[in-house]
Amino acid sequence: MVIKHYIWLFSIVVFSIWQSTQIAFWPVAWHSLLSYSLYIVVAIGIFISLWLNRIQPFLVLMSIGLLNGLLTYFAAPSEMNLSSAVLFPILAFLLPLNLLLWILLPEKGIYNKRFDIAVLSVFIVQGIAIYWLMTDLSLQWVEPLSLRVIEGSQVIQLPFASSLMFLLAGFVLSFKLRYHRFKVLYHAVVVILLLMAYGLNAFFQPGMLAWFSMISATIIIFSVIFDSHHIAYTDELTGIMGRRALYETFLGLGRKYSIAMVDIDHFKSFNDTYGHDIGDEVLRTVASILNTVSGGRAYRYGGEEFALVFAGKTAAESLPELERLRAAIAAESLEFIANGKPVQTQVKISIGLAENDKIYKVPEAVLKFADEGLYKAKKTGRNKVVESLSPPNKVNSRSPRATAKAIKANNSKAPSKIS
Q1: Per-residue pLDDT reduced to its tens digit, 140-154
Q2: Domains of the chain
Q3: pLDDT for 395 beyond 60
Q4: CA gap 248, 255 in Å, rounded
Q5: Angle formed by the axes of helices 28-52 and 208-233, nearest 10°
Q6: Residue 180: exposure state from Cβ atoms within 10 A (0-12, 13-18, ≥19)
Q7: CA dist., res. 348 & res. 248, Å (int)
């Protein structure tokens, strides 16, 4: 999952750096359009963040927009003076610091008043500090503040302090990526640190900062959309795909496929005995093993039930892999503390397996057929895989709507689920 996101991030980085070499040859009108486009993209990103109630991308976009606004109106490259010589290194230092701060802060949503007041206070304090530095900073501090990494270099023009802050922010965020649940935004901000450092380093070349800022804002928009998709289609507890993703997978299955329904044996009694926290840990453990399935994909169907879809495989071809998963889960030792005492136990699963045929042509019908196999596995001793070889009640497969009605009717007559 991480790799596919780095592919598009890397592609955008390569394109933006390559295209930046052509900015000097753009028509003058394009440069004016670039400045306006930056703020339009930032505004679109802010609107999406507000709509989805996401404070972190909102703050990142605000930081990028304010940086460009302040540098454009108070420190334009064409009007270099003492004021701009002081403002540029200050803002170049604050940008990576702010990006790091916004990502380290928890996602509280836009409409958390206490959190919003705290964030507003950070902006106000930084504004006051910038004003004080601009008006009262002694001239003897101006030169150290603007000190470059390599004096006289035409390649590295960022001040030493801001370069150090960019490296520090990237280092800290890289550690966060290793120990935090996957989030596209966090990976995107690491890339944005690189792009904004590149843009600020080329600040004195017209259009460069605006170009890289616009690309960074675009990346933020993409990351918010991808994160929202991930939240919608991924089960939050187990981290694997959820039922919504399962039904979307049904739309793309070919002519040959098999589906397995999985249920944790005696999960209700286990949950009642040891508590919901331990039950959640059991669900995560089972899901992590099921997610290692070869040739198929695992989904959490709901409660203690999971579904496995094998596209392009018959039931006979899927059976060995299901047996492997069943054995792996049965062999997994669970250790935890319950009522102050250490407990060591195993969890077992039952599996029902079915494939599409002339009667069961739609995935929903095959899923129901696999559920019948799961019920048989429960009735005949549990901890086994049962393939549904003979159809129970016939399902009209002439159309998906007719099939759905038949499945609903069968569900109302089906025997109660055995845990």
Answers
A1: 666 667 777 776 666
A2: 2-233 (no CATH), 243-413 (3.30.70.270)
A3: no
A4: 16
A5: 30
A6: exposed
A7: 29
Q: What is the pLDDT of residue 333?
A: 86
Q: How far apart are CA 415 and CA 258, in angstroms?
A: 23
CA atoms of 298 and 235, how far apart (whole Å): 11
Take residue 386 and report the two structure tokens written for it. 């049962």
* pLDDT > 70? residue 82: no
The single residue listed with the structure tokens 């610091």 is 97
Residue 189 near residue 99 (C-beta atoms within 8 A): yes
Taking CA atoms, 14 is separated from 61, 300, 348, in Å, by 21, 37, 49
DSSP state, 159?
B
Between CA 27 and CA 53 the distance in angstroms is 39
pLDDT of residue 202: 87
**Stretch (H or E) spanning 300:** strand 297-302
Q: What is the pLDDT of residues 319-371, one digit of tens each?
A: 999 999 999 999 988 888 777 778 888 899 999 999 988 888 899 999 999 99
- How many angstroms separate the CA atoms of 58 and 47, rounded? 8
| pLDDT of 165 higher than 90 | yes
Q: Distance between CA 353 and CA 322 in Å, rounded?
A: 9
Token digits for 302? 């709901």
Chain mean position to CA 409? 38
CB 364 within 8 A of CB 407: yes
H helices of 202-338, where?
A: 208-233, 243-251, 267-274, 276-290, 315-331
Q: Are 265 and 349 in contact (CB under 8 A)?
A: yes
- Whose tokens are 């494939």? That residue is 355
pTM of the shown model: 0.78
